[in-house]
Design goal:
Strand content: over 45%
Number of domains: 1
Mean pLDDT: 79
Number of helices: 2
Strand order of the largest sheet: 2-1-3-4-5-6-7-8-9-10-11-12-13-14
Order of helices and strands: HEEHEEEEEEEEEEEE
Structural class: mainly beta
Distance between the termini: 19 Å
Largest sheet: 14 strands, antiparallel
CATH topology: Porin
CATH class: Mainly Beta
CATH superfamily: monomeric porin ompg
Low-confidence stretches: 1-56
Length: 294
């Protein structure tokens, strides 16, 4: 929310989106964000509660990351996660992500890449990568035009290959402590299901035209408390009942100048997932953030 919060409050929002928005780093994350406003180093992210993950055709929230850069400049974020559990069973997990965004007076662009791997005993239970590229051209009267391409592989969702390409208009408005953005982007999707001879859709391919609609807003309740809500709706053009839905909400409280408590919840729904994949995915997390800026 440019011009209405100080550099530190704006930095806390960027850190919160990295810790809680991507959904790939659940237990421990180390991130860095660099911009013209300053440099932040995330020291700790303590997850108090994480709901069980199930597979679904996930919607990557690229808009929140890109909108974190509200003024001309650049932002780079990176994170790594490693965890190991032994005894009754051996569970190994690794994950990482890196993203960069650049904004000028009349255009902005971002790139993001992430991956995760989890193995329990002798079975791989989660493995995936995601790459996303987005460009936005600013137009008069708070309008913009944006386009994106995305590639995804996810073992948990039974996605062997998923390619997306889309382009469309966007409108954003900021009033006092509140800002809102709405976008509607027609997109083409190519989806290939993984090979599993025991399942009816083994190796099947789908080519679909969908509409990706998003609405996001954030409000500074006071100088210490901020709330944001991001939602996506992606129906098929030939069958509007076959849709994907996603909603992410977060509340952050600045305990002092360096310490922020963030609570986030997310819900995602896919009307027609692959066979043996759940339609619903939900989680709740509590993160403790330590930041430094200059």
């Amino acid at each position: 929310m440019a011009g209405r919060v100080d550099d530190h409050a704006r930095s806390r929002r960027d850190v919160r989106r990295w810790l809680c928005g991507a959904g790939r780093t659940d237990c421990f994350a180390i991130g860095a964000a660099m911009s013209r406003a300053g440099f932040l180093f995330v020291v700790a992210n303590v997850i108090a509660a994480v709901m069980p993950r199930t597979g679904h055709a996930a919607i990557f929230d690229a808009v929140s990351f890109m909108d974190g850069l509200t003024e001309p400049g650049a932002t780079v974020e990176a994170g790594l996660e490693f965890s190991l559990r032994g005894g009754n069973t051996t569970i190994r997990r690794a994950g990482g992500a890196v993203g960069a965004a650049h904004r000028r007076a009349d255009w902005a662009g971002m790139i993001w890449a992430s991956g995760d791997y989890e193995r329990a005993a002798s079975e791989t239970v989660s493995q995936g990568v995601l790459e996303h590229l987005r460009v936005r051209r600013f137009l008069p009267h708070d309008f913009a035009w944006e386009g994106f391409i995305q590639h995804e592989y996810d073992l948990l969702q039974r996605i062997r290959t998923r390619m997306l390409i889309g382009s469309g208009p966007r409108y954003a408005r900021a009033v006092s402590r509140f800002s809102v953005a709405v976008g509607a982007l027609p997109m083409y999707e190519f989806l290939r299901i993984d090979d599993d001879p025991t399942l009816a859709d083994s190796g099947q391919q789908f080519q679909e035209a969908r509409l990706s609609v998003y609405v996001r807003g954030d409000v500074a309740l006071d100088d210490r408390v901020q709330f944001d809500l991001n939602s996506y709706w992606q129906p098929r053009f030939d069958d509007w009942t076959d849709a994907r839905l996603s909603a992410n909400a977060g509340l952050s409280v600045a305990l002092n100048r360096w310490l922020t408590l963030a609570v986030r919840g997310s819900v995602a729904w896919d009307q027609t997932p692959a066979v043996a994949v759940e339609t619903l995915d939900y989680r709740v997390s509590t993160g403790l953030e330590v930041s430094w800026s200059r």
